[in-house]
Amino acid sequence: MSDSVLVLGTQWGDEGKGKFVDLLTAEAQLVVRFQGGHNAGHTLVIGDEMTVLHLIPSGILHEGVICAIGNGVVLSATALFAEMDKLEARGIAVSEKLVVSGACPLILPYHEALDQARERAAGSEAIGTTGRGIGPAYEDKVGRRGLRVQDLTDLDRFVEKLRSVAEHHDPTLLRHGLDPIDVDAIAEDARALSQRLVPMMADVPGLIAKHRRAGKRVLFEGAQGTLLDVDHGTYPFVTSSNTVAGAALSGSGCGPDAIDYVLGITKAYTTRVGAGPFPTELFDDVGAVLGERGNEFGATTGRQRRCGWFDAVAVRRACLINGVTGICLTKLDVMDTLEQLSICVAYECDGERLDYPPIGADMLARCTPIYETMPGWQARTAGATEHAALPSEASNYIRRLEELVDTPIHLVSTGRDRSENIVVHWPYGGPNNRPGGD
Ligand code: GDP
Ligand code: IMO
Ligand code: MG
Question: Which positions are catalytic?
Answer without folding.
Answer: 14, 42
